[in-house]
Amino acid sequence: MKKRESIDIILCCYNQEAYIEQALRSIITQKVEAEVRVIVADDNSSDRTLAIIKELEPLSPFAFTYLNARHNLGINKNYQRAINQCTADYVAILEGDDWWSSTNHLEQHRQFLSEHPHYSMSFNRIDFYNQNTGKHQITFWPAKHRTHLEISLKDQIVYGNQIGNLTACMFRNKLLQELPETFFDLNFADWELGIMMALHGPIALLREPTSTYRINDQGLWSSLDSDARKQSESTTLEQIAPFLPPRCQKYIAENKRTNKSSTTPPYLLTCKQRVKIWLKQHIKKANTPEPKHPTGR
Description:
Elements: E1 6-13, H1 20-28, E2 35-42, H2 49-56, E3 63-66, H3 75-84, E4 90-95, E5 99-100, H4 105-115, E6 121-130, E7 135-138, E8 148-151, H5 153-158, E9 169-172, H6 173-176, H7 190-198, E10 203-215, H8 226-240, H9 248-258, H10 266-286
Parallel strand pairs: 1-2, 1-4, 2-3, 6-10
Antiparallel strand pairs: 4-9, 5-10, 6-7, 6-9, 8-10
């Protein structure tokens, strides 16, 4: 009998008492064919975030592990200690002010990665919720007949960040554990992690939008103006370059020449980029000759 797969969920939170119940309920309602554990990485919240989690824990079908924090570590070191605690086959991340909008979120990722071992990670289309306006907008999908899109290392660097939110991601834990210790000294997020994962194989973008990203004025990215976003993107490429093989330098140079994504909201920037990626794959597939069958078949 095949061993049942396992998933560690990193619930990363800090002073999010207004949102944490919605996030946690989206965890405990998941329907998934795997052993699941929730790793609570609360970064020494000063409000009731941690208390609310503990109040709701008895409703969960999954085991909980709490990481102690006697002082504020900051987001990167908080993620580092959580990742270091992961022992499962896969790692999913839920940020404390976001939520999974489908009870099938974990299962669709687990099933895909289990059936497609050459992909390094997966992420899904995102439902962007603007808290100020109350409106939802889902990221663009270029081809209705495709259930997933392949994002290469080149795509992830040249076209800018294709992911958009860690809450949409599932990683192969063995690849997370190979991250250099010095990587956690960076101010990393989904773009940098996506690039590091793509070093080991392509990334899969799944069509079904099973997670929601809350946009508010306190968001690390959404609170930046266009100039700050441009500077952030340039700084990111400079910081991550030492972790990449020499062939990536031409991708970084191409990004600097052509990519303007940092001035555009994340739910709009991917339209042209994903059309280009899809067309590239479509043309490549169309130009691939049919396999020749042996004589007599």
